[in-house]
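Illustration 12: MFS transporter.
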Amino acid sequence: MDVYAPQVWLPHERPTLPGSPSNPEHSMPKRIAFLLVGFIVAITGGLGNALVSVNLPYLQGSLGVFTTEIQWLPAAYVMTNVSMNLLLVKFRQQYGLRLFTELFLVLYALVTVAHLFVHGLGSAIAVRAAHGMSGAALTTLGLYYTLQAFPAKHRLKGAVLGIGFSQLAVPMARLFSSNLLDFGEWRGLYFFELGLALVSLACVLALKLPPGDRIKVFEKMDFLTFGLFAPGVALLSAVLALGRTVWWLDTPWVGYALAGSIVLICAALAIEHNRARPLLNTRWLINPNIARLATSVLLIRVVQSEASGTVGFLQVLGLNNDQMLTLWWIVMAGAVAGLVISALYISPTRIPGQLLFSLAVMALGAYMDSDATNLTRPQDLYLSQFLLGFGGALFVGPTFISGFGAVIAAPNNLVSFSVMFSITQTLGSLLGTALTGTFQVWREKYHSSILVEHLTLLDPQVAARIQAGGAQGLASLSAAATREANILAYNDVFLAVTVLALFTMAGLLTHYLWTACVSHQPKSVQNAQTGMATASLNNSGSR
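Figure caption equivalent — predicted structure in token form:
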């Protein structure tokens, strides 16, 4: 039997694109099972990496490595995750997504098991790299399973949930990672990762997706592009992950790596630009609508990095994760609420309003945090962090759907869209952390210099404090000045995030108003951007 021969489908069963599953009718129990498996698989794709990312200081101590060395763990995940998305779409079109997922889930489990017995930074990096490869498949697989749980008329809701489940990974990781560390230090995290991988593998094997069409799509030039693009992204990921730690201008290899990444990525894009059947359609990617979408998602990932700033701020005040648990429950509730409301109210005409509202909510949340003091405690951040969690979850689903219509119109651009969305989400997270962290360090130095200028022995209060404590009093005063400088710097970060969210909102609003004025038919313009995705999702199943 020729697996690449066209199959005959009923009209409502036809797959959206080669490589995606067909859409037969399911009973209600089976729909519930698909939804549960979709959630488990999607969470597995993000939670393992989130557990490591939020516990880097603890892993650093357990592994006995320097701060610069532990930063290779999140970098290794992004290196492989972004690169594998370049081949994943064509792999599932030619061989099926199931084969790819099962292969890398098994690889991920085996490498995790090996790391439990080989205690070292090298094996930890290998686990992160394997998780990045499997995570690239699990994100899409979770979306496909979730879509199978919904009838055709509610397929848009399924798409929002399938994409949005991954937004729950970070707050979930903060909620119970301390218990895992208490259970077995770093091994507790990796035992949990191993359990997730095995549960997902069991679910995928027990409940199979409906079959889809398969076609021959790989070309020899695809692997040349991958051979240039993958190391280019790896170098860029290393720069973004470690640049702030080793400091951008103080370490020569950062400049060499950045230059190398630019050369390699540009070479890959130059090859693709001149191919008849490109893997990455550069002309499509620079289309104003697609470029605007990518820029908006990238900026939002920077805005969402405010959460890491909140953690850093509370740690400056001397608080640990156990004292922030209620705060993370609030953030989790906000993310769930944003995800549910986004799914309930999603429609092509409502997408612009949802995106603008989510940005306004995040801007408000960040602004509320910008007047923190040394008396601020987690309970003072409940509302602002709820708003940030809510806005972030509300944004991601409509953003994905607003860009998917262009893919349905030109299916050959599926790889380009997948890579673009992955880069803006995954690499954007590294970029956001790097930018906010760098800005915080820069502002801390500024505020520290201002505060130190006013700490003079001519000030009676300063002189009295030093005389009362001697050398210990001087150290205490210096520590207090450093803490206050950090608090002021984090306030600057929160304010900058506010400005960035408002700037992004203004850009989107200007675009919507301009499009409406030019066309004089706002609804038709909005439907032109997202209606094709709606029609496709109503007839089948996503990307």
